[in-house]
Amino acid sequence: MKKLFYNGKVYVNRDEFQEAIYLEGEFIKEVGKTEDLVKKYDQEDVEKVDLEGRTVIPGLNDSHLHFMQFGESMNQVDIEGVESIQEMIDRCKIFMEKNPKRCEKGIHAIGWNQDFFKGDKRIPNRFDLDKISTEIPIVLERVCGHIVSSNTKVIEILGLTKDSPQYPDGEFLIGDDGYPSGVYTANACNFAKDVIPDFTLEERREMLIETMDYAVSCGLTSVQSNDVGTTFMNGPVAFDLLKNIYKENKKIRYRHQVCFNDFGEFENYLTDGEYSKKDKEYDTNYLKLGPLKLFKDGSLGARTALMRDGYNDDKDNHGLPWIKDEEMRKYVNLALENNLQVITHVIGDKAIEDTIKCYEDAFVDGENKLRHTLVHCQITDRELVERIARDDICVMAQPIFLDYDMQVVEDRCGKELASTSYAFKSLKDLGAHVAYGTDAPVENLNPFPNIYMAVTRKDKKGNPEGGFYPKECVDIYEAIDAYTVESAYVEFQEDIKGRIKKDFLADFVVLDEDIFTIDPMEIKDIKPRMTIVGGNVVYKR
After folding, report:
1. Given 49, 161, 483, 507, which residue has the most CB atoms within 10 angstroms?
2. In this structure, are 349 and 257 located in the same domain?
3. Where residue 146 sits, what CATH number does that domain have?
4. For residue 199, how many other CB atoms are within 10 A of its CB?
5. Residue at 72 is within a domain
């Protein structure tokens, strides 16, 4: 396969553009001027594609999301953005009426956020969800995934009473009536979610392919996805499902981020599990095994992120640790023995500080050679930011989180700490590797609202005027690089991915607008005209 894409504005590097891309097979062979390459490759066996002057950027690479769960969310009731508990109830009822067979065994969805409710901003409880149904189990997750609400049916299936022992690393809350309220936090959420029967393998296969189609339509060419350990599927089944799909469907590149229920499961993965097959069954550029994923804390919105000085609006609350320091060290040390990268969910400053210390203790010759990474890394003071950069610890950031978080972070953390948080620009200026992603389904996996948020520090409605702590705005080049070459760096692929250059993978996106000159307020509305993965046009409109 030989192709020449010509007559475009091709982003090569900061302030550096070319016009044409020549590729053979999966790789780019030359980038240059249209006149030169059209003349050089004027051959019958070279397919020619006129870019019609459109802007071309490297394929976008989401550094952290939950691909399978996003597929689930596309097939569940949409409760994202509801402005009241009643609206959530109504949406679920309508979904049940339209999809009775799908709801026979229960309803599970993610997306509500009490801070967006108008009027009463309380967390939904069993009495609310009983208004949807008392006959089937109903589990509705807060947008962060760290708080879950259920109806009474779920409580009955779990056999919970006020005297039941609490779950490890999480809890079910007790209502004023002395009965479980139907609200679960941290690890207890998983027990509630497990009540809902899983999708069949064929349903999951169809959802994954549908999600791949949607992702490439948004300009994604690679995803680094934490599905194993976070979906209802057990690890071996999830691994096999992806491998079978990739035997015939190579629309997008996928790198596993893997978490485990306990340490023994991790040990087995390394010795007799999927990790032992990595050289034989994961030797392509499309499907790869990636890092160990750990969770250190919860979320800011749920006040379960670990905070050093407690919450500004809840002084006695310091958040919830999802893993104790000594347990975390066991995981990180075993990962080191097996030359395995570790990435850790950290949102609060205490979680970030403790995780940095754990990483530092496992550095090789004082260096972060395994590229251990902080996922989210939201609440920081200047000292933490400098320490991250000094240690060369990578960050997988989600600027799109600011759309909601800018509404609450000053209340949760105080203005001083808020002013040094979500420090995308400071981290970059200090030399840290910052890769962008969406954490879908927490947010939609569309990368352009994410890029918009990084550049403007404004919510989707264009507020506040001037941006939220605008000193942390990045420019468009930095934002695109964070979604391409930096995302490639955190997966050890920077030598073949993330740039449009010779001998790199032929992954790139043709845009409907010039992202470099458009009004920054319009970046979020940009749409791909064409997405190319490995030289193949996998999306076109």
Report:
1. 507
2. yes
3. 3.10.310.70
4. 20
5. no
- The total of structural domains in the chain comes to 3
In the block, which residue shows the tokens 């189609």?
213
Task: Tell me, yes or no, whether 157 and 210 share the same domain.
Answer: no
Q: Return the closest-CA partner of residue 138 out of 105, 95, 94.
A: 105
Residue 486: CB atoms within 10 A of its CB come to 25
d(CA 374, CA 490): 11
Report d(CA 491, CA 487) in Å as an integer.
Answer: 7
Q: DSSP letters of 148-187?
A: EEE-HHHHHHHT--TTSPPPTTEEEEE-TTSSEEEEEEET
Q: For residue 75, is it within any domain? A: no
The string of DSSP codes covering 294-350 is: EE----TTTT-S--TT-BTTBTT-----SS-HHHHHHHHHHHHHTT--EEEEE-SHH
Q: Are residues 149 and 216 in the same domain?
A: no
316 with 355, same domain: the answer is yes
Q: Which domain holds residue 7?
A: 2-58+506-513+522-540
- Reference 60, options 437, 495, 401, 440; nearest CA is 437
CA angle in degrees (0–180, nearest 5) for 390-394-399: 115
Closest C-alpha to 111, from 264, 266, 301: 301
- Predicted pLDDT of residue 232: 63
d(CA 316, CA 118): 27
- Which of 193, 220, 251 represents a domain boundary (last residue)? 193
DSSP state at residue 472: G
User: What does pTM read for this prediction?
Assistant: 0.91
The per-residue pLDDT for range 191-240, each reduced to its tens digit, is 999 999 888 899 999 999 999 999 999 999 999 999 998 776 778 899 99
The residue written with tokens 């071309």 in the block is 56
Cα–Cα distance between 511 and 405 in angstroms, integer? 29
Report d(CA 67, CA 72) in Å as an integer. Answer: 9
Q: Residue 49 is part of a domain; what is its CATH number?
A: 2.30.40.10
Q: How far is CA 529 from CA 56, 446, 474, 533, in A?
A: 10, 14, 25, 14
Residues near 273 by Cβ (< 8 Å), separated by ≥ 6? 235, 236
In a domain, 65, yes or no: no
- In degrees rounded to 5, what are phi and psi of residue 159? 70, 30
First to last CA, the chain: 22
Q: Is residue 356 part of a domain?
A: yes
pLDDT in tens, 417-459: 999 999 999 999 999 999 999 999 999 999 999 999 999 999 9
